[in-house]
Amino acid sequence: MQFLHVMARCCLARTITVVSLTVSLSAVGLLTSSCHFLHPLLQPLRKVSYSVYPAHWFHLYSVNMSSYYDSKEKSHHSKALTSPYPGSSVERSKVPSDKVDWLVEWKDYSPVEYTAASILAGPKWADPQIRNPVGRTGLVGRGLLGRWGPNHAADPIITRWKRDKSSSKIAHTVSGKNILQFVAIKRKDCGEWAIPGGMVDPGEKISATLKREFGEEALNSLQKSAAEIKELEKQLDKLFNQEHLVVYKGYVDDPRNTDNAWLETEAVNYHDESGETMDNLPLEAGDDAGKVKWVDISEKLKLYANHSHFIKLVAEKRGAHWIEEPVTDCQK
């Protein structure tokens, strides 16, 4: 019996390998066949079907989504249901709003399978096919994403106060709060405005990704000369080495998400209080960006994926203007 317990612990240790910024799917590894010998108590888990998991199993091992969205935001699972899938003509299987949650039994769920040829031709990772923590998306496979499970990104939110010609902060006429601006890029792939972020390279620290992606997409650093890059680095170090706010860590409602692969990000706000640092960093679109500019922050913003949610969090933390319409007595 002692031998059995030792072997069971060995199997668990070998199979529970997926680590994300905010998601711990500790039991999914039990579904793989890497351990040919399981403790008898664990055998039933090998028989769990793809579309329907026992309710008690999911209550035991389901992801705690409180770090992703508040109760109001949890219902926002729309970009991950986008059809056709980005960069293709592949249509997702239709997922009714009442069937998104994995806890809802749906025996006939048969999602379309799609992994882009560019991904299939790339390096093969040994990550297991695990489940989207928010719910069904109508598509299995990796789509345009390189890894099974969480694909980690980083989003640098660079802000400054909007000022008039005399350098005084400009307050909004409705809210009376100062207007905050952030650097936005227009994505080449879909034409939507977004935060100039990107994917974390293997072994790269988040802080390095934030600075690198901002330099590549908002300052066109990949096309600079060695002398220009050296000067650019000095200014970027000044901006990215100051105090900053981590405004969000977790799942991104991204149109590239599938049942088996999804985006997670860390959104970090770097604020240039005086505006002087950014004055020495002229914006120039590069890499995946078609355009780049300063954008006024307000609730009217329409951005890629759920980037508007990240920007809202920044406005709240900085005490900046957000709500455009005046609040009436009935709304109070």
Automatic annotation (TrEMBL):
Residues 215-242 form a coiled coil. Its EC number is 3.6.1.13. Keywords: Coiled coil. The keyword Protein biosynthesis does not apply. The keyword Coiled coil applies. It comes from the Eukaryota. GO terms for cellular component: mitochondrion. Residues 161-317 form the Nudix hydrolase domain. It holds the Pfam family NUDT9_N. One of its GO terms (molecular function) is ADP-ribose diphosphatase activity. Gene3D superfamilies: Nucleoside Triphosphate Pyrophosphohydrolase. It is an enzyme of class 3 (hydrolase). Monomer. Interacts with GLOD4. Belongs to the Nudix hydrolase family. NudF subfamily. This is ADP-ribose pyrophosphatase, mitochondrial. The lineage of its organism: Eukaryota, Metazoa, Chordata, Craniata, Vertebrata.
